[in-house]
Amino acid sequence: MHGLKKRFRFSGPSLLRQQQQQRHFHEDKAFTGGEFNLWAAVVEEPQAHDYAPLAPPTLSDEDVKQKLASLEEQNQKSGFVDPAAYVSLLKQSGDVTALKTIQAHISHSKRFAGDRLLLNCVVEAYGKCGCVKDARLVFSSIRHPNVYSWTILLAAYAQNGHHKTVLELLRQMDLLGVWPNAVTLATVIGAVSELGNWDEARKIHARAAATCQLTYDVVLVTALIDMYAKCGDIFHAEVVFDQARNKDLACCNAMISAYIQLGYTVDAVSTFNRIQPSGLQPNQVTYALLFRACATNGVYSDARVAHMCFILSKLRPDVVVNTALVSMYSRCGSLEDARRVFDRMPGKNVVTWNVMIAGYAQEGYTDEALQLYVSMEAAGVEPDEITFVNVLESCSLAEHLAAGRDIHKHVVDAGYDSSLTVLSALITMYSACGSLGDAVDVFHKGVTTHSSVISWTAMLTALTRNGEGRSALALFRKMDLEGVRANVVTFVSTIDACSSIGALVEGHAIFERVIVTGHLIDVVLGTSLINLYGKCGRLDYALEVFHYLSFKNIVTWNTILAASSQNGEETLSDELLQEMDLDGAQPNEMTLLNMLFGCSHNGLVAKAVSYFRSMVYGHCLVPTSEHYGCLVDLLGRSGQLEEVEAFISSKPFSLDSVLWMSLLGSCVIHSDVERGLRAARRVLGLDPKNASPYVLLSNMFAAIGMLDAVKSLAKLAGERAMKKEQSRSYIEVNGVVHEFGVRAGLHRLGEKIGAQLREWSEEMEEAGFVPLHDVRGYHDEKLAIAFGAISSPPGVPLFVVKNLRMCVCCHGEIKHICKMTGRDISVREGNRVHHFRPMDASCSCGDYW
DNA sequence: GTAGGGTTAG
């Protein structure tokens, strides 16, 4: 034990500095093994008061009446009643009726009717039971309210969430010449904290400094630190802390909390480490903070050290400390340890359950999360709104619609269906489970004009996620009209909606609006812009934004790489990858996938293989079936169908339908009907609901003129109730996005579009181009192109977004249309952009499409 | 009159 303590002292101060080195060492040898049982102290029997603090005794209206009667009797007998008797009654009575009875009694008594001290107590009592209006009325009846009366009134408003009124009341005090004291100021500081208003924070700080001896009033200092933390100003929090003499534990705890709230975990820990040397002993609050700091950093070895520090402190673990432990372990990646504390700790409350459920949900253990929710109810703990948010998130991740609907019922039963947070979670759940209609219902029923921007943004994202980019933009406009103020997150979601349908002009307009409204282009917003420009075929703009961003995260790098690969600039992708290396960013699985995509779009087999090798041997990344899929795709396209089939069959990932889909795609290109059918069977065996094999086979049969096969396939797909995603195309003309496809129905310029297409067909035939037989009439991408051509001046480039892949016929024809019209035409399908060139009727994909 | 554990759209 002694030796251990020595080592602990050695490790403590460097707690977080070692994070990089120890990230992967889940068993810290210094603290494991038989010499100390880390878990023993968690289960120590709690004292009753640890978990169920005694509620102050409250008197019912009946009790109060009895007591008042005896006071009256006493008054008549002796002619004297101690006002303290009333004060004590007021402090004990918990409900409004009782308070009203006492108030009536006081106002009818000759002796106490105008007694300021008693009335102050009445105001306070009303405030405590949530009756701000009554408190205000009683206050108005006080003839000369003093600073105590005012402060009590301020506290009543503060306790009930009316923080702005607190500031207003302070102004009234000033006008009337009543000087606030330290307690008044502390109350106002609390209100400013809740408002998070930095300007007000500076004002009240100045005032506190002018009114009180700040360096000696440690309570005021503590309140100020917390206020600055909530206003996001760590600098002034530190200034106040440093200037304070006689710092007590609460003050240090407030400073640690400030550091954590603003993300300075290293400073939080170094402040923790200075507590004991300064002669103070950390308490449960301090440790709960330390655990939160470790949870934020997510380093498991630090978590173990922190836990050990607590055990050595001999403090009794209460429910908050244990819950913080559960949270810390689960956020440091050890659900086992989290569960160990959770299972052993007594007195779990709703927060404890929420933490454990969130732990499972965030690691993707959705079944366990849902199971825990059931156990929680069985244990008799009532779920709250955070429980529902966590559980709904699990349903979203698992795409478990049935469970989601069940939880929705529980939400209604528990009365949380008016909570905006829960509503947003419901919207997200339904949209993630593919039930957009339910998401829209929830939105319309529960979300009103005045409701939070979060719900609107959730709905916007839900629409985009389900392929309804145009509706998302319409919702954004409606939101504007209804006066709901968009924030940065909304802008990001809206820009994503634009990206999904190729709305370049509209997306650009949102960008301008972001700038005009003074929002900063942070890394997420910048990345969404790079994505927009990349997906709209404007790699030049994407690069401009990319170079503008001073801070780039891995998603930013991956997005610019994707933009470059999507647009067929694989040389640029190579350069960017090198730049990324110089910048010190570590490539991840997505980075390599983008590189492989780039090769795949250009048919660069050897290069792809070399990237694949560097991924496994150089970067030690585990390839997913998508990486293999890319390779399979490349090899297949280059015609090595037999090898590919043997390769997939021989690997454990033969169980992944994506790979067989990829082979099927190659068989379509090379018209290998037999192998294509085999691949299609494998896909359907593994993923029976997948409609894509039918589409691809149908394309293959169409391309080789087997029209009967196309028809019987359509029949089969219909019988099996395949839900094929309906094909559609978008084109933005003059800043407006137009949709083409079955769903969109006839366009108002339908006749003119038809005439244009016929004209092109004739022209192509004259030039000797024989289009392959087109079984479904004009495909939507051609309708979109024809519309673009007749609605914009000659020479203006056309950009079309298609939700599915183009067929061979369209790809061939668009090359000719491009040459005939002399326009640059680009079509994005999925994750690649085809840039057609008018000069030689070719496509950037080199027909590796 | 001051300090602690949870989630919230990108």
From TrEMBL:
Q: Where is the DYW domain?
A: 778-849
* Placement of PPR repeats on the sequence: 146-180, 248-282, 318-348, 349-383, 452-486, 553-587
Gene3D superfamilies in the record? Tetratricopeptide repeat domain
**Domain of life, per lineage:** Eukaryota
Keyword Ligase attached: no
GO biological processes: RNA modification; system development
Query: What InterPro entries does its record include?
Result: DYW_dom, E_motif, PPR_At4g14850-like_plant, PPR_rpt, TPR-like_helical_dom_sf
Question: Which keywords does the record carry?
Answer: Repeat
Q: Name one GO molecular function term.
A: zinc ion binding
Is Transferase set as a keyword in this record?
no
Q: What name does this protein carry?
A: DYW domain-containing protein
Q: Which organism is it from?
A: Selaginella moellendorffii (Spikemoss)
